[in-house]
C-alpha cells in the first residue's frame, strides 16, 4: 500500500498528452483546469494535486497548513517534457487549507515563497497564502444565459453603472465596514433595477494586495478578492444580478502587475512573467511590472484568466484596462527609455498579436460576451474584426469624446460659443469604432473633483449643467457608462475609503439629478433609435450644428423604422430660448419624452406642453418644422408619432 501511495504522489497528473502539446504551443486557453491546486477524491485516497510553471527552478515544494509549512515534506516533481511544469499529489490536504510554493532557483541560491498564480482563492491582505478551494456552485441564471445573445448584442442598449465595490456603501454602525458579496446582492440589485441600468461594471474584483490601487494592481488572476467573501459568494452576487436581468462586466488588467515578492514578479528566480529589461518590463507610471507578451506561456496564462471569469463566473463582458500602455513601447517613456520593435517602430507587435489572439479565442468560445478596451489614442480599427485588420474588440472607450465634452462643460456658458467645435467634432469620427461613452472613475479622482464640481455657475446652473451633460451623453451615438455617485450629483471627489454621500438624496436638487438619470435610462431602453444603430452612420443625422452663437445643437437618431425616430435638441446656455425653430423630416406629432428643465428634475418648468404637431414651415432644408421653447441649460428628446389627418366634412357634403 505504501508503494502505491508513493507512486500516486509521484505519478498522478491531471495533464494529458493533449494538454502538454497545447501548453507547449501556448494554445491551451483553460490552464486553470490543470494547473494550480485541485482537490482529488479517488474514494480510497483523498488529497490535492498541485501543478505550477517554474522552468528555472532547481526545486519546488508545497508548504502549507497541512504540513506545518515544512519545506521538506512535499517536494514536487519537474516534468521531463519541456513544459517547465512541476507537479505532485499531497495526500490528506483538503479544502480551506492554506499553502504556498517554496521555490529554490537554479541561479544565485535564490529562494522565495510564492502564492500560487492559479489559486482559486487566497487570504485577505495583508496575509499572502493561497487557499485550497473548489468552484462548485449551482447556478440559477439559465434564463439570462439563454437570452444573453439578445441582452448583450451590440445592437442592444448598454447603460453601464460602473462601481468600486468597497466604496458604494459603508455600514456606519460597523466601523465604516464595506459590504460582502452576498450583502451587496440585496441593495445593489434593487438600486440598479430602480435606476434602469442594463449592466453593472465592477472595478477589478481580482485579488489585489493594496486596497488603494482600486484593484488595478492585480495579483490574483484566478481569484476574487477575499475582502468581500468567498468565490461562491461572488458567484451568488453575479447569479442574482442575472436573475434580475442585469448584466455583469468585470474590469480585467493584463497590462501590468505589482512587483510584490509573493506574487508573479521574479517568480522562479528569473523574470518569468515580465521582461527582464526595465525599458520593456517596468511601468514608470504605476511602478509595476509589464507582462512579456512574447512568451507563449505568458499569453496562455492571460488568455486562460480572461476565459476563466467568463466560464466559471458567468461574466458577460470584460473591460481591458490600460490598452494604450500595451500597444505602445514608448508609452509614458522619455526618449531613450524604450526599445523599438524589430521594424524600428514604437508599436508593441507582441502585445498586438496577444490581443488579437485573446479576442479571436473569446469570440469563438463566447460569441455573446463583449470585451471592451480602454484605449486613449487613435490606434486604428480597435473594435473592427480581426479578419478585416482590426484588433477584434467589441467596443472601445471613447476617450476623445470624454475629454472634449468635460472640457466644454467646464467653460462658462458665455464663452461656450467659442468652443462649439468641441461638441460637434466627435460626430466626425463617431462611427469609426464601436464606441462606449464613459464618464468613469478616472474623471472624479486625483484632484479633478466631482462631475458637478466641475460645472460652472451658481448652484442651479451646476445642477442644470450636470443634467445636460447626462442628457448629451444619452443622445449621442455610443453605449453609456456612468461611475457611481455621478447620478447623485455628489459634490465630493470619489474616495475609495468611504461610501457614497447617499444623504444628498434628502435634497430635492440632488434627487432631481437621480430622477433624471433614472428616466434617461428607462426611456433609452425603450427607444430603439437611441441604441440600435449606435455604430452606423445611417442612425444619425444632423438637424443643425452651426448655431454656435446661441450654443444650440440638434439632431435626429434613427432606428430601423421611420416611427422610431427621435429628435434631440440641446441648449447649452442659461437662457430660455422661445420660438426656436427646428427643421424636422416628417409631418406628424412630436411628443416630448424627456425635458431636463422639468420641475421634477429641478428645472424651471418651461417646455413644450408634452409635444406639438409639425408645421408646414420649411426650415433647415426640410419641409416641416417645430417652434420650440428650450429651457435654460437643457436637453430635450422628442419621439416622432404619425398623425392621421382627419378632414372635417362641410355641411351639405355627401356622406
What does this structure look like?
With 655 residues, this protein is of the alpha/beta class. The protein has three domains: 2-131, Sandwich (Immunoglobulin-like); 153-254 and 292-530, Glycosidases (TIM Barrel, Alpha-Beta Barrel), CATH 3.20.20; 538-641, Immunoglobulin-like, CATH 2.60.40.1180. It contains 13 helices and 28 strands. The strands form seven sheets. An eight-stranded parallel barrel has the order 9-10-13-16-17-18-19-20, surrounded by four helices. A six-stranded antiparallel β-sheet has the order 21-22-23-28-25-26. A four-stranded antiparallel β-sheet has the order 1-2-5-4. Strand 4 (77-78) and strand 5 (85-91) form a beta hairpin. Helix 4 (181-195) packs parallel to helix 5. The longest helix has 19 residues, at 508-526. The radius of gyration is 28 Å and the shape is elongated. 47% of the residues are buried. Residues 645-655 have low confidence and may be disordered.
Quick check: average pLDDT? 95
The count of DSSP E runs of length 2 or more, i.e. the number of strands, is: 28
Give, in spatial order, the strands making up the sheet with the most strands. 9-10-13-16-17-18-19-20
What is the first-to-last residue Cα distance? 105 Å
The stretches of 5 or more residues where confidence is low (pLDDT under 50) are 645-655
Shape: elongated
CATH homologous superfamily classification of the largest domain: Glycosidases
Q: And the CATH topology of the largest domain?
A: TIM Barrel
- In CATH terms, what is the architecture of the largest domain? Alpha-Beta Barrel
**CATH classification class of the largest domain:** Alpha Beta
Radius of gyration from the alpha-carbon trace, in angstroms: 28 Å
- How much of the residues is beta strand, in percent? 15-25%
> DSSP helix count?
13
Helix percent band: 10-25%
How many domain modules? Answer: 3
What structural class do the secondary elements suggest?
alpha/beta
Largest sheet: 8 strands, parallel, barrel
Amino acid at each position: 500500500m505504501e508503494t502505491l501511495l508513493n507512486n500516486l504522489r509521484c505519478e498522478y497528473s491531471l495533464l494529458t498528452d493533449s494538454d502538454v502539446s497545447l501548453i507547449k504551443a501556448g494554445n491551451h486557453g483553460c490552464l486553470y483546469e490543470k494547473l494550480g491546486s485541485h482537490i482529488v477524491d479517488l474514494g480510497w485516497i483523498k488529497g490535492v494535486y498541485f501543478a505550477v510553471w517554474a522552468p528555472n527552478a532547481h526545486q519546488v515544494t508545497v508548504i502549507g497548513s497541512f504540513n506545518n509549512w515544512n519545506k521538506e515534506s512535499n517536494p514536487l516533481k519537474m516534468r521531463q517534457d519541456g513544459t517547465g511544469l512541476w507537479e505532485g499529489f499531497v495526500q490528506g490536504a483538503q479544502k480551506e487549507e492554506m499553502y504556498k510554493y517554496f521555490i529554490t532557483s537554479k541561479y544565485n541560491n535564490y529562494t522565495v515563497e510564492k502564492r500560487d498564480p492559479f489559486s482559486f482563492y487566497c487570504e485577505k491582505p495583508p496575509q499572502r497564502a493561497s487557499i485550497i478551494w473548489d468552484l462548485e456552485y449551482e447556478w440559477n441564471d439559465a434564463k439570462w444565459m439563454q437570452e444573453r445573445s439578445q441582452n448583450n448584442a451590440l445592437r442592444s442598449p448598454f447603460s453601464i453603472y460602473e462601481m468600486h465595490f468597497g466604496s458604494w456603501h459603508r455600514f456606519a454602525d460597523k466601523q465604516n465596514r464595506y459590504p460582502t458579496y452576498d450583502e451587496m446582492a440585496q441593495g445593489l440589485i434593487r438600486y440598479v433595477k430602480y435606476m434602469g441600468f442594463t449592466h453593472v461594471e465592477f472595478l477589478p474584483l481580482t485579488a489585489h494586495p493594496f486596497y488603494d490601487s482600486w484593484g488595478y494592481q492585480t495579483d490574483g488572476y484566478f481569484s476574487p478578492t477575499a475582502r468581500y467573501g468567498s468565490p461562491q459568494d461572488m458567484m451568488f452576487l453575479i447569479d442574482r444580478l442575472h436573475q434580475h436581468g442585469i448584466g455583469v462586466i468585470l474590469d480585467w488588467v493584463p497590462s501590468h502587475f505589482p512587483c510584490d515578492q509573493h506574487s508573479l514578479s521574479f517568480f522562479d528566480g528569473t523574470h518569468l512573467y515580465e521582461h527582464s529589461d526595465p525599458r520593456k518590463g517596468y511601468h514608470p507610471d504605476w511602478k509595476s511590472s509589464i507582462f512579456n507578451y512574447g512568451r507563449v506561456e505568458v499569453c496562455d496564462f492571460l488568455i486562460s484568466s480572461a476565459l476563466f471569469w467568463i466560464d466559471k463566473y458567468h461574466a458577460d463582458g470584460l473591460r481591458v484596462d490600460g490598452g494604450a500602455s500595451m500597444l505602445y513601447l514608448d508609452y509614458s517613456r522619455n526618449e531613450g527609455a524604450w526599445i523599438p520593435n524589430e521594424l524600428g517602430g514604437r508599436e508593441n507587435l507582441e502585445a498586438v498579436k496577444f490581443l488579437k489572439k485573446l479576442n479571436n479565442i473569446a469570440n469563438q468560445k463566447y460569441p455573446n460576451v463583449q470585451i471592451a478596451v480602454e484605449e486613449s489614442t487613435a490606434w486604428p480599427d480597435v473594435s473592427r474584426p480581426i479578419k478585416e485588420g482590426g484588433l477584434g474588440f467589441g467596443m472601445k472607450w471613447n476617450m476623445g469624446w470624454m475629454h472634449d465634452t468635460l472640457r466644454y462643460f467646464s467653460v462658462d456658458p458665455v464663452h461656450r460659443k467659442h468652443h462649439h467645435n468641441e461638441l460637434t467634432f466627435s460626430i466626425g469620427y463617431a462611427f469609426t469604432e464601436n464606441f462606449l461613452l464613459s464618464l468613469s472613475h478616472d474623471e472624479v479622482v486625483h484632484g479633478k473633483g466631482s462631475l458637478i464640481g466641475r460645472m460652472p455657475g451658481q448652484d442651479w446652473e451646476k445642477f442644470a449643467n450636470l443634467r445636460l451633460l447626462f442628457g448629451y451623453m444619452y443622445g449621442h451615438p455610443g453605449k453609456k457608462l456612468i461611475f457611481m455617485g455621478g447620478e447623485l450629483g455628489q459634490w465630493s471627489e470619489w474616495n475609495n475609503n468611504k461610501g457614497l454621500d447617499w444623504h444628498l438624496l434628502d435634497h430635492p436638487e440632488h434627487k432631481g439629478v437621480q430622477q433624471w438619470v433614472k428616466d434617461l435610462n428607462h426611456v433609452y431602453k425603450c427607444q430603439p433609435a437611441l441604441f440600435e444603430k449606435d455604430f452606423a452612420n445611417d442612425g444619425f443625422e444632423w438637424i443643425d450644428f452651426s448655431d454656435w452663437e446661441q450654443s444650440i445643437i440638434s439632431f435626429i437618431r434613427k432606428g430601423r423604422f421611420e416611427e422610431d425616430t427621435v429628435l434631440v435638441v440641446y441648449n447649452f446656455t442659461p437662457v430660455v430660448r422661445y420660438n426656436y425653430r427646428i427643421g424636422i423630416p416628417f409631418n406628424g406629432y412630436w411628443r416630448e419624452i424627456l425635458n431636463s428643465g422639468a420641475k421634477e428634475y429641478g428645472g424651471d418648468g418651461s417646455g413644450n406642453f408634452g409635444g406639438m404637431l409639425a408645421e408646414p414651415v420649411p426650415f433647415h432644408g426640410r419641409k416641416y418644422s417645430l417652434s420650440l421653447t428650450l429651457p435654460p441649460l437643457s436637453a430635450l428628446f422628442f419621439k416622432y408619432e404619425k398623425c392621421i389627418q382627419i378632414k372635417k366634412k362641410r355641411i351639405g357634403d355627401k356622406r
